[in-house]
């Protein structure tokens, strides 16, 4: 979609405006904008202002959406395009454009198998020589092989077409904590009425049916979630949900209790220049501190930091021995636009429970040897994640223990999460863009 000089062509530019208008209509809850009334444009103007603090008049919206006809297709100014993109959950208009281009690049071409040329219909008497009879011995195996290929084509094609005819759309991807997200399963008329699974990105899932098209999900903690639509275990489509914070927050949850989380509201969370909560604070929030519980610190905000070229260093101490804490551990997650980095560091005897992800590369202690991430940090230590041109490197106590090169870019960073089992302490946190030296606003 980019021309040779790096700019979008005129046709492609208006195509992107049209895609944006279609998505805004879907998020607004009225995808058929041909039926919009004057009141709908007034309501949309108010909704956009509440979400983005940018005021777009109803008449401007009518020009953008084609309600008011002009000699040439109306092209809104950048601030207006940014506001529309932010309403859809993007950082700005450029990010919206990048996501569309990235999605197109990920689209795999359909498998095409050429069918054999059809011979003329009707018998044609001919004299068959001995050589031709010998050749016929090879003809049937060849035709049989071609028939198998054609059969495979028609067996594979329905699954491919199904992926293209069913999509997952979140109508309200941008919200605060907590957030009730509304997902729409959009099927083309030709799509079969089959069951799908929605993985909401927070460990929960839901099975769809052939009659319902709208599904809602309650997100209990801030962060960036990548919801995935699956069919027979294969990803069909995805959607992003983003819950922002205004700084660092503390939230607790208990093992085997998926019914709720426990926000820990402390006014002076960083008063002593470190991140930590006391057991009494967790108990006051409703946590049974005699059972296994976790405390996570989240700072979820869009940044200009390159998620494929940054350095994150934190000086921490994991939980001391206490009731409910056997595997004293810390987990780090860095959210990007379309993927994430995450890993755990645990006591050596608990490496079976470790998760590791660098963008599209996933490893799990259940099936992989992740003993290099086993370390006892109860008395303190330093954990570092450094990424240079999609080469991710993990350091524990200044020793590089792992590196891997991934291909799916994170692009800009959208926030971080640090999770402890029990009561842990973050003494310092430093996240910096390696190319521009841009610091994270939540550094301390």
Folded structure, characterized:
There is one protein chain. The protein has helices at 10-28, 38-52, 58-64, 78-87, 93-106, 130-165, 279-284, and strands at 166-170, 174-175, 179-187, 197-199, 205-207, 214-219, 223-231, 234-243, 249-254, 262-264, 293-299, 309-317, 329-335, 340-346, 355-358, 361-364, 381-388, 391-396, 399-405, 415-421, 425-433. It is globular and about 70 Å long. By secondary structure, the protein is of the alpha+beta class. Helix 1 (10-28) packs across helix 4 and helix 2 (38-52) crosses helix 3 (58-64). The protein has an eight-stranded antiparallel sheet with strand order 10-9-11-20-13-14-15-16. The chain has a five-stranded mixed sheet with strand order 2-8-7-4-5. Strands 19-18-17-12-21 form a five-stranded antiparallel sheet, with no helix packed on it. It is built from seven helices and 21 strands.
What structural class results from the helix and strand content?
alpha+beta
Tell me the radius of gyration: 27 Å
Count of DSSP-assigned helices: 7
Order of helices and strands: HHHHHHEEEEEEEEEEHEEEEEEEEEEE
Shape: globular
The CATH architecture category of the largest domain equals Sandwich
CATH topology of the largest domain: Jelly Rolls
* Strands side by side in the biggest sheet: 10-9-11-20-13-14-15-16
The profile of the biggest β sheet is: 8 strands, antiparallel
Number of strands: 21
Provide the residue-averaged pLDDT.
84
Beginning-to-end CA distance, first to last residue: 41 Å
């Amino acid at each position: 979609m980019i021309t040779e000089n790096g700019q979008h062509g005129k046709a492609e530019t208006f195509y992107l405006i049209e895609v944006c208008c279609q998505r805004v209509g879907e998020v607004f809850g009225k995808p058929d904008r041909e039926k919009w009334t004057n009141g709908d444009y007034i309501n949309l103007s108010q909704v956009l202002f509440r979400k983005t603090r940018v005021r777009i008049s109803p008449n401007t919206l009518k020009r953008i959406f084609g309600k008011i006809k002009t000699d040439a297709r109306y092209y809104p100014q950048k601030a207006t395009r940014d506001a529309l993109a932010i309403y859809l959950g993007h950082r700005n208009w450029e990010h919206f454009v990048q996501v569309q281009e990235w999605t197109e690049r990920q689209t795999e071409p359909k498998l095409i198998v050429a069918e054999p040329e059809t011979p003329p219909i009707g018998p044609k008497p001919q004299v068959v020589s001995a050589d031709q009879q010998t050749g016929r011995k090879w003809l049937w195996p060849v035709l049989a092989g071609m028939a198998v290929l054609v059969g495979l084509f028609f067996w594979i094609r329905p699954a491919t077409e199904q992926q293209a005819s069913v999509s997952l759309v979140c109508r309200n991807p941008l919200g605060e904590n907590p957030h009730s997200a509304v997902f729409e399963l959009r099927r083309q008329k030709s799509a079969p009425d089959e069951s799908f699974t929605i993985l909401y990105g927070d460990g929960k899932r839901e099975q769809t049916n052939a009659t319902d098209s709208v599904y809602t999900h309650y997100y209990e903690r801030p962060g960036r979630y990548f919801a995935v639509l699956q069919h027979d275990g294969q990803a069909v489509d995805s959607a992003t949900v983003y819950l922002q914070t205004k700084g660092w927050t503390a939230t607790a949850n208990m093992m085997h209790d998926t019914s709720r989380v426990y926000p820990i509201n402390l006014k002076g969370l960083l008063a002593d220049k470190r991140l930590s909560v006391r057991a009494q604070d967790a108990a006051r929030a409703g946590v049974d501190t005699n059972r296994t519980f976790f405390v996570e610190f989240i700072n979820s905000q869009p940044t200009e930091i390159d998620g494929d070229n940054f350095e994150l260093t934190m000086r921490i101490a994991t939980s001391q021995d206490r009731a409910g804490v056997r595997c004293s551990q810390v987990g780090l997650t860095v959210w990007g636009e379309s993927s994430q980095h995450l890993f755990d560091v645990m006591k050596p005897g608990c490496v079976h429970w470790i998760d590791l992800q660098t963008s599209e590369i996933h490893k799990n202690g259940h099936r992989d040897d992740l003993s290099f991430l086993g370390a006892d940090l109860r008395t303190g230590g330093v954990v570092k994640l450094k990424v240079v041109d999609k080469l991710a490197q993990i350091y524990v106590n200044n020793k590089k223990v792992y590196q891997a090169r991934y291909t799916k870019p994170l692009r800009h960073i959208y926030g971080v999460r640090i999770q402890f089992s029990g009561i842990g302490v973050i003494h310092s946190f430093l996240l910096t863009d390696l190319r521009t030296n841009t610091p994270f606003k939540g550094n301390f």
